[in-house]
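Fill-in record for Caspase-6.
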Amino acid sequence: MYNELNNPSDRLKTRCGSAAFSQHRLGGQSAGCDWSRVDFSFFSFFFCILSVIDLEMSFRSAASAESLTETDGFFRSPVVLDPAEEYRMTRKRRGVALIFNQERFFWRLGLNTRNGTNADRHNLERRLLELNFDVRSYDDYKLVDVLEKIHEAAEDDHSDADCFLLAFLSHGENDHVYAYDGKISIQDITAMFKGDKCQSLVGKPKIFVVQACRGEQHDVPVTPCDAVDNDVKTNETVVDACAIHTLPAGADFIMCYSVAEGYYSHRETINGSWYIQDLCELLQMYGGSLEFTQLLTLVNRMVSMRRVGNCNDRSAIGKKQVPCFASMLTKKLYFRPKK
């Protein structure tokens, strides 16, 4: 369209109108002047010049936009994606699985003892061993020791491993989880395993399981149940304290949370937490055959069918819980048996 109006007089006629253009042209002819020498009045001439400039810039912008679109299309190469593509899980080792199990806390933190968490650790150890993980468990570690173990794992050579897993069983707050004597940012933990820090895990699944409370309500606001003494024989439902926010981690990460943000995570004082119980049961049934995010969806459904039964806080009776996961995986993930 720009070339079609390349003649200045044509652009002038388009912008000023045919009638006005003809009037000025006739005026020039009646005075015996050539059209190229027509003397417009000052205001008419000024207006038309501005109009032509404005029109010229509009044409150039349109041409530029068209050129930009064509350039974008030129550099965007087609990518053929296979929706069934899986992570390679046939290396020599399945990979390391770290479990940080926090039952007791330094008294100054004011956090309740997490009765039942040892059952979670035991169940998780057994299921991960069945999936061929190299399981390393740590009970009630201080903050400096937790950081040291995580740092060591990040510096390990994972070249012959399929993936990596880290589970934290504790109380939580905002974007932190608690060690024995202090809290650590979940983002700081995951950052140690990103590509620029741990190159041997680039392109491999990195699984983080967080069993901790993420809010201050069930389906409606309630007062948290008080934890009971270690020698209690009744399987009572209690809650893990405080809140955890969902955080982005990076490509090939998957963050598995025991509860959606803003809600309590329930734990039975003998059998362990609802989330770890059901996760382990489904890992036993389908861990070697079902795609991992599909398995986590089943965990969500299974936990959501539970209700609080026996609890000191009567207002908590009948309340529920729904887990969630945030997947940044780029392929399907299966834990098929090693040959």
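KEY FINDING: The chain has eight helices and twelve strands.
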